[in-house]
Amino acid sequence: MNWFKNNNDRKKSYKMRGMDNLKKIFVFAIIFLGMWELFSQNIASGGVKPNLTSAMIKALRIVPSEGQQHYTNKSIKFEVLIPYVKPNQVEIETPVEQNKISFKSLRRVEDFSEYGGTKIEIWFSFSEAGIYKIKPLNVRIKNISRTIQFSPFEVSVNPMELTPVVLVEFENGVVVSSEDKGKTLTALSTKPVMSVRTGEKINFKIELKYAVQLVQFNWDLPRDSIFTKQKDYEITEIKPRDKVYSEDIIPVADFEWTPLVSGQIDFPRFYLSSTGYNGIKSNLVLPSFFVNVEKASAETIEQENSAYDFAFEFDEIENGEESKLQFILADCYEIARLRSKERHSFFPQASLARKEFEESLGLPSERKEFSVIFLLVAMISVIFFLVLLVFFISQKRPGAYVFSAAFLITSIAFFVFATIKANEKYAVSKGCRISTIPETSAEVKSVIPAGNRVQIVEETDEWYYILLGENGGWCKKEEVILIK
User: Is it the case that residue 33 has pLDDT exceeding 70?
Assistant: First the structure.
């Protein structure tokens, strides 16, 4: 019995030792397989795959993808790479929409770089330009909740939504723009943009922004002032610019404006049409604003006269001979009457009569009056050859209508010339006194002897700006007689 009992004890002992050995082999196998899995993924690179830490997640930032434009109302792609984890280990919570920010879509893709990872790609759209900071993205990585921050970034206005803008920039740095609104417009309508004195020059530049091509550019000549365009820039050549988006200011033209009367003077009206990046033509209008013009004192006028001073000399009459040319007022009116008759006559007799009378008084008589009859003749010629051209085209006579077209073009050119000449304004001097600005207190720089024919270039309520030869100045309206 003892032997049987001892034999059973030995069998149990062997069995226990066998179970222990199997457990050891099983544990060893698990450890071996785990180590093999760990090293086999990185054996090709010769390294051990790192682990993703909390510090690494905190350092992650979601940024816009490279190579895209950050424009309003356009889907902008953002991305972030979470290293060392598979896409199935990452869960993403749908972003909550914010003010002016619209969520479009997202996805997660596997990254096949050295250690691998998961790339998160998100698309947003922004309704307005500005600098944005999107709320953090909530994710779960290996069942642990995390947040990943967005980097701040700037969104610009979409060029396809931009309307060209016109600006006027004054020499003193003041800028008025068609973009001005609200409080700015209220300020412009109640306060002058600057204050000057009569006769003082105001230099400014007309400019554009967001424009591709200038289609139209003209302006109204302001009353009671001298207004001159000083310089044109490349965009006035009516050539399209590069359509690459730019916020650069585009110069159009430089102007010089000299108000000649005191008061609140409205800024001259400009009319511009321009195409934007979307190809649409827009009519551009500056807001209404004004300049405060103060009347120059006698001392100021004297100082300005020295700056404006010029030699007012005449080829026809030497200043030293003025005493010989003091005609009675009736002679000046007779010269104006004869010249008005010559202006409305087609025959040379009127010109000869006027020439004889001026020569009898010792006045220069070479300058003839352009007959307005030529304007009527030119108009009739244009109508005649236009009708003739239409007739020959309807009759299909190529030789005849080519001939008619040539005469029609010549007639149109003559009509334009005649219109310009007919609209020129002339007068006869009664001995008018010339000054550099239209102020009664201004210094008289010269006197145009009575009987001389002068050209009227500008006018105010009481003054004419006249030319005699290449020289000019301001004189009172009552000191000349108009040639009608």
Answer: no
